[in-house]
Automatic annotation (TrEMBL):
An annotated GO BP: sensory perception of taste
Listed name of the protein: G-protein coupled receptors family 3 profile domain-containing protein
Recorded family membership: Belongs to the G-protein coupled receptor 3 family. TAS1R subfamily.
Molecular-function GO term, any one: G protein-coupled receptor activity
InterPro entries: ANF_lig-bd_rcpt, GPCR_3, GPCR_3_9-Cys_dom, GPCR_3_9-Cys_sf, GPCR_3_C, GPCR_3_Ca_sens_rcpt-rel, GPCR_3_CS, Peripla_BP_I
One Pfam family it belongs to: NCD3G
Gene Ontology cellular component annotations, sorted alphabetically: plasma membrane
Species of origin: Tachysurus vachellii
Keywords, comma-separated and alphabetical: Cell membrane, G-protein coupled receptor, Glycoprotein, Membrane, Receptor, Signal, Transducer, Transmembrane, Transmembrane helix
Chief subcellular location: membrane
PROSITE patterns noted in UniProt: G_PROTEIN_RECEP_F3_2 (PS00980), G_PROTEIN_RECEP_F3_3 (PS00981), G_PROTEIN_RECEP_F3_4 (PS50259)
Top-level lineage group: Eukaryota
Transmembrane segments: 546-570, 582-603, 615-638, 659-677, 708-727, 739-761, 767-786
Amino acid sequence: MLRCVFLAFHFFSKYVCEPSEFNLPGDYKLGGIFPVHTASEIIIPNSPMALQCYNQPFTMSGYQMFEVMRFSVEQINNSTTILPNVTLGYAIFDFCLYNQNFPSILDFISDNGHINVSEKENKHNVIGLVGPYGSTEALAIAPLFMMDLIPMISYASSSYDLSNKWVYPSFLRTVPTNQDIIMVIINLIQHFGWNWVAFISSDDSYSQNGLELFRSTIKDTSICLAFFYEITLNSNYTEILKRIDSLSINVIIVFTLEDTARAFVETAVRINIRDKVWIAGDAWSMDAELSTWPGIGQVGTIFGVTATTLNLPGFDEYVYQTRLRLETDYCLNCEDTVKCNQLCDNCMNEKPEDIIKESPTYSFSIQAAVYTFAYALHQVLNCSMAGCARDQDIPPYVVLQNMRQTSFILQNQYVKFNQYGDPPASLAVVLWKPEENPLFVVVAAYNTHPTINFTLNDDLVPWAENGTVPYSNCSVECETGFKRVQTSIHKCCFQCEKCKAQTYINTTDDAYTCAPCAEGYWSDEKSIICKKRIIVFLDLKDPLCMLFLVCAVAFIAISIGLIILFGINYNTPVVKSAGGNMCFLMLFCLVLANIGVFFYFGVPDPVNCALRNVFFIFFYTICLSCMGVRSFQIVCVFKMAAQFPDVYHWWMKNNGQWLCINVYSFIQLIACGIWLLTGRPKPYNDSTSFKDQTILTCDMGSMVTSTLAWSCLWFLSIVCFCFSYMGKDLPKSYNEAKSITFSLLLFYLGWIAYFTAYIVFRGAYIQLFNAVAQLSSSYGIIFSFYMPRAYIIIFQPKKNTQAYFQSSIQTYTQTISRM
C-alpha cells in the first residue's frame, strides 16, 4: 500500500525536463542524490505537483559533489581491471528538500516507472544508491531502500542511529559516524584540560544523535555538560549566548546543521561575545562563507572536526574537459528527448575554477562509495583480465553481501566496512584562521585503523606563543594528594580535601576517593602512592637478641650446675635448710619457666605466641609457692610451734607444705588453661605504632583471662614477701628474708619496667623487654636464694656443718630469752 501511494507521487513528477548531465546509460546503473539546490524551508504547493529544485538556491558544494560522482564513474569505466567489459551508468537527482523529493527515490526503486507489488523480487532502475548528504535525509528515505535490501552508501550521513542493522540492514557509509566525531571532540577537550562546556544542537536527527552520544560518552570522563540547548532558526540566540556567558563557560560545542550554526555564530559576533573556544561539528567545520564573516575572529578560537580531506588526482582536469564539451542548450519540451533528467541553469553556467576551489571535504567519501559498488560488482560478475560475466540480473542483496565483504586501498586509504556498515574513521581537527591563507589549518588527526590514535600539534594552536590555554573549568584542579568533594550535581564542581595518612589517591582511577593502603603498605597524608612497610620482628641476628640468648642459655647452664652442686651436697645442712627436695623443684621450675623466652624470636605463629608467657606464669608460680611455703614453715618452727602445737603437728604430719604447693599450682594451672582455651595470645601485625613499619608481635589475648593468670602470680608474690618479712629476725642460717626480698624486688622492678615501656613505647624491642623481665625474675631467685648457699658449699665448707647450724640456733634462743 505504501508503495502505491509513493508511486502516485512518482507519476505527478514524470513531466520534468532532464538534462543529460544527470544521466549516463550503462550495463548497471547507480543512483545518486546530491543537494545541487537547497530549499531552506518546506514548500506547500497550491496543487499536487513535484518540487522543482531548479527554482531553489544553487549550492556550489553540492554541485561539486555531483561532479565527483560522475568523475569516479568515468574513472571506473576507463579502468581495464575493475569492470573490464562492463559499463557503469548513473541516474543522479538533485535532492533539495528531504521530505518533498520522493519522486527521485521512487524512480530508483521502480522499474521504468512501475513497481509490481505482487512480485517477491522486484526489478529496480539502479543496483544501489550513493547518498544522501545529511543524516535527516538518510533517515527519511532509507526505509524505502531497506524493504528490498537495496544498498545505499551515504557519503556524509554520520548519525549513529543508521548503524542499527536491525532497522537499516542495507545502509553503509564512507564517512566516520557521529560516535567517531564525538570522540574527537572529547579528545580535544581532554587534551586542553577543559571540563566545563556547553553543547548546542538543533532539531534534526543529526544534531540530536550527536547530543545523545556526547552525554552518554562523557559519563566515564571528567567532562561536565554545564549547558545544552536545542535551537532552531527561530530561537532567541542572544539569550542563549548570554546564559552561556553567565555560567562562565568558555568552550562551546555547536553540533548543528550549517545554516543553524551560521546564524548562531553570527549572533555571537553581533552581540560581541569574545574569547570563547568554539568546536564545530563536521556539518559546518569547513564553512568558507562563515569563516570570512566580518568580526568572526573576535569571538575566539574556532576548531572544526571534519573528515580527512583528500584532493582527487585528475579531478581538476576532468572538470575543465567536461565544461568544454557540455552542451549549453537543453530541451524545452520533455517529449523531444528522453536523455534529459532535470533542469539546472546554474550547472551549465558555473566556471571550472569555481567548482575546483570548493572544499573537497566529501570528495574522497563519494569516490569511495562509487568504488565500493564497482569492486562488489567485480566479485559478483567474476571479473578477470579477460572480462566479466555480463547480462546478469543481480538481486540487490547479492550486491550488498559483496559490498560488506569488500576491502581495498584507494589513494592510500583503507576502505572496509565493519558489521555495522561503518568505515574506519579518519578525521581531522582544523583551526580557523580568518583573514589568512589558508583559512583552515589542520592541527590534529584521529584515526581508528589500524589502532585508535589521536595526535595534536600544540605548536599550531593560537595560545602556543604565550602558553596560556583558555580556562573553562567549574573548579580549580586539586593539588597533588587532594581528593575532590563534589559540591553540586556536576561532578567537575568540587572542593579539595587532602587525603589522610594511610590513604592515597589515584586521580586516573578515581579523583573523588582517597583509597586506603593495602595491608603491608603505608603513606603520609596527601600521598598519591603507598609505600611498602618494613617488616620488623625479633630476629636472631640482631645483636641485642643474640646477647639476650647468651644470658638465657647461661641461666639454664647455671641452674643445671646448681642442681648438680646441690645434688652432690644433698645431705648437708645448707641444702636441707634451703628446702631439701623443694630446692630442686624450684630449680627445675626456673629452668622450665625460662623456656618460654626462646619463643620470642623469629616470625610469631600461634604456638609460640601461646607459650611465651604461659610457661613463665605457671612454673614461676610453683617456684614462688615453694619459697612462700618454705618461709612460712620456718616461721612456724621458730615462732608458732610452741603457741599452736596442734596446728604445727597437723602441718608436719600431713606434709602441709606440699599440700599448699599442689593446691596453688592447681589453681594457677586452671587459670592458665582458661586463658589458653578462651582467649589465648595470637599473632598480631602492629601497623599503628610506626607509619612505615609492620611489627610482627603477639597480642595479650583475652584481657579478663590473662589478668586472672597474672593476678594469681602477683598475689602469691605478695604473700611470699609477707612471710619472708615475718622471718627477718630468725637465725642467720635460716633467715631467708633478705634473699627472698631481694629476688621479689627484682621481680617487681623488672615487670614494672616492662609494663611502663609497654604503655609508653612502641616497637619490636617491647617483646624483648618482656623476655628480659622473665629472665631477670629468675636470675633474681638464683642470685639471691641459691648463690649465697652455693658460695658456702664451695668456699665456706665450715659453715656447712651441723655444729655451725646448732650454734646459730642456740644464739637465736639466747637472744630471744633475754628480750
